[in-house]
Amino acid sequence: MAYVAVKGGERAIDAAHAWLAEQRRGDTSLPTLSPAQIAEQLGRAVDRVMAEGSLYDRELAARAIAQAQGDLIEAAFLLRAYRTTLPRFAASRPVDTGAMLLRRRISAIYKDLPGGQLLGPTYDYTHRLLDFDDADPPPAPQADTDPARTPRVPDILGDEGLLQAEPPSDAEPFDVTREPLAFPAGRDARLQALARGDEGFLLSLGYATQRGYGSTHPFAGEIRFGDVCVEIEPPELGFAIDIGDLTLTECQMVNQFAGSKTEPAQFTRGYGLVFGQCERKAMAMALVDRAMRSAELGEDVTAPPQQMEFVLSHCDNVEAIGFVEHLKLPHYVDFQSELETIRGIRAQAEPADVNDE
Amino acid sequence: MNTGYNFAYLDEQTKRMIRRALLKAVAIPGHQVPFASREMPLPFGWGTGGIQVTASVIGPDDVLKVIDQGADDTTNAVSIRRFFARTAGVRTTTRTQDATLIQTRHRTPERPLRADQILIYQVPQPEPLYRLEPSRAETRKMQALAEYGLMHVKLYEDIARLGQVSISYDYPVLVNHRYLMAPSPIPAFDVPKLHRSSALQLFGAGREKRIYAIPPHTDVEPLAFDDHPFRPIRAPRSCALCRSSDTYLDEVVTDDRGGRMFVCSDTDWCEQHR
Amino acid sequence: MNLLAARDLGHRYGAITALDGVSLDLWPGEVLAIVGESGSGKTTLLDVLSGRITPESGTVWYRDPAGTLHDVHAMPAPALRALHRSDWGFVRQDARSNLRMTVSAGGNVGERLMAQGARHYGRIRAEAERWLVQTEIDADRIDDLPTTFSGGMLQRLQIARTLVTNPRLVFMDEPTGGLDVSVQARLLDLIRTLVSQLRIAVVLVTHDIAVARLLAHRLIVMQRGRVVETGLTDQVLDDPQHPYTQLLVSSVLQP
Predict the structure, then answer these.
(1) pLDDT at position B185 over 90
(2) Which of A87, A183, A333 lies nearest to residue B265, judging by beta carbons?
(3) Which of A306, B14, B57, B78 could anchor a disulfide with B10, C-beta 3.0 to 4.6 Å?
């Protein structure tokens, strides 16, 4: 029967998967990429996959990138599906980004500051010229590392009372992976969702705020990138133990705020914190975080970046790709109903045209 | 059977969380219960809600049937059936009467179900009002207050403009005279099968993180007007293979000269009636 | 017996006093106008009376058709919303904010009937048509979208949509504001006719003394959140006692 051919069937699926595996491997005369090579040489891709996959493991992320043929959203999806089955042992103590072992730290709002500006490894000042030289680069010069005090720039403003303080809380934060999000969502839930959110989506929304759609008048107070240690405090011990290091990028935007009758004029903060070296994502996240605070700060909510429900419902790329791409699943039953309905409506409008068998 | 994962993939804590949501859903028929949907190894929108519900209720003695568009051999049905064969090692079947659990996308089987069967629907959009009011914060309020006038306005507008209601699938229904519910994108033709069914019907929306249910023998009424009653739509033909004249039919294009043939969408029904 | 009663209402926005010791009664079928300049608290009073704002002090009572009194601000949200869909109505200055602009005129008028459980398309449509005619809109516009209507028509459509459930009490906020003078006159005439025919009680907020004179049986004059004068419309307007009322009356041309 002709119609059987349009249905998948087990053998067709097996064959498709075999073809995919072959395509993924490519020309077998070339050596297979190892996860170690990917982790070392495609570090930014690994960082992005860890951030959006919300699982900090360079080796697994590198493996996922190879398995997904470099499709980073697909790789993040692989990590998410792996992560979801992992048991949880403990919640860590909040990491202290003020004690970060810095590899980069810049502030746009002070020319110089305690601890200095530290450029670190960045593409910012490179010329975007394709490099045809495959030779290994010479080793970078080593500075005499000076373990200077490097306070977070917003803390300097905060000491003067010029930056709105965030209310401290000992409550266990909301967990977007364990509880369904409800609106309006707390800042903890918002920041988590943004930290896992799609870099491209947040970049576009952040960009939109700069073009007037939910303007936040941002200054890049500080961007820092480096390593922090993660501590957990097992109840049976009663003190914290160090379980390892994370590489993080933190961005704190300092935004204008006119003040109100009850509050003196002060700056407000947009906050971004992302796994790995994802500066663009951290900045976009900080812009969008601040935009979503518009309602609580008494500003008009007029643009999508300010609409919490809109941003949070659509920032997750694993959810988005699934639903967009599900359109390629068969829908012929629904379509058949639409066909019959539209035929019915047309028949009603033009009874003469009906020619049923 | 694959090792490395728990029975039916999900860990027991997650299953308990989902079962609590299911119990609540059964207690409040048609009401959408939020649940902490997990990432699954299949994409959101491809049945993750149904899979999580199935994973939470399936036991080693269950016999599973999976259909998509009414057919057991569509790609996604095959993929999900294999997933459970691999992770739960359960028996699978294509025969509706032999299954204890049936996971479905877009159809309700033609054969009436029994009290010892559970039908699990995959749901893309659990909120029936979302096309009229996109804010889920607002629709939740409308559901809480049973303010469904807006949906009737939509039906009114359809009749005023087109002479009939234009909703042909995912037809809004009122469950137990209280909650407005999306029956998932099953054709309107299938809606009467939901009414007072002997089987428990569960609905899982993974991406939207909602679970809801129709307990057995519950009233399920499609929205309609007294003078424009609900009409289940099907192609007015008989199946070319089994001659059934009261089943939902797929239209199969046989050539590029307008050739058409109509066959049962429920492939199991069709095979058993030839 | 009174339909609506307010006792000692007080409300502030920061340092601004919006309502200060306001009490009033409204009787069935009575049109009560609240006049005053912008900032006098009249819109806040309307929002408090209709349950949209909870005042800092004081109480608003509503007597339902069975004679039972309800504290409007203590009513559960579903009951208050049901009241707004049935026994009460609200007519706003901006008709667009109260209409569904993507739904036909018939659908707009029929919505409240459907919300109340009407399930017969033909009867809903007939009733919508009757109300369009009552509000001087051509019956053959029933399937047109409000986006094709003029300002005066939109306001009349809003009135049809509100009155279709035969409310006992309608709140009106500057119902003729922003319309041309000739359009205003026609609309005022329509409102007066309908309100007296249907014996609807109205709380009308307006800054326009002429509108109050034409529609209202009784008048409340507000200044800085307080009621400075109250009485029968003609009596207050022809013989104003309070200096502020005298100022208001002298600032408009006498009819």
Answers:
(1) yes
(2) A333
(3) B14
Distances (CA, A) of B218 to B109, B118, B213: 18, 14, 10
Are the Cβ atoms of B152 and C115 closer than 8 angstroms? yes
Helix (H, G, I), strand (E, B) or coil at C65: coil
B235 vs A340: CB contact, 8 Å cut-off?
yes
Positions of chain C with pLDDT lower than 50, given as ranges: none
Percent of chain A with pLDDT over 90: 66
User: How far is C76 from chain B, CA to nearest CA, in Å?
Assistant: 11
Cβ <8 Å between B249 and A336: yes
- What is the Cα–Cα distance from A262 to C64, expressed in whole angstroms? 42
A178 or A2: whose pLDDT is higher? A178
Nearest C-alpha in C relative to B145 = C78
d(CA B227, CA B223): 12
Catalytic positions of B, written as ranges: 30, 239, 242, 264, 270
**What pLDDT sits at residue C30?**
94
Q: Which residue of A has its CA nearest to B37?
A: A180
Edge-to-edge strand order for the sheet containing C31-35?
C88-91, C169-173, C201-206, C31-35, C218-223, C226-232
For residues B131 and B157, give the distance between their C-alpha atoms in angstroms, rounded to a whole number: 14
Peptide bond between residue B187 and the one before it cis (omega within 30 degrees of 0): no
Tokens found for residue C231: 């009485």
Contact residues, chain A, for B189 at CB < 8 Å: 337
Residue A33 confidence (pLDDT) above 90: yes
pLDDT of residue A4: 43
Q: What is the CA radius of gyration of chain C?
A: 18
Alpha helices in chain C (DSSP H): 42-49, 77-85, 105-115, 121-134, 151-163, 181-198, 209-215, 233-238, 243-250
To the nearest whole Å, the CA of B156 is away from the closest chain C CA by 7
Size of interface A-B (CB pairs under 8 A): 153
| Contact state of C106 with B156 under an 8 Å Cβ cutoff | yes
Interface test mutation site (partner A, options B37, B44, B141, max chain A beta carbons within 10 A): B44
Q: Quote the ipTM score.
A: 0.89
Distances (CA, A) of C35 to A237, C143, C176, C244: 72, 38, 14, 11
Q: Do C103 and B152 touch (CB under 8 A)?
A: no
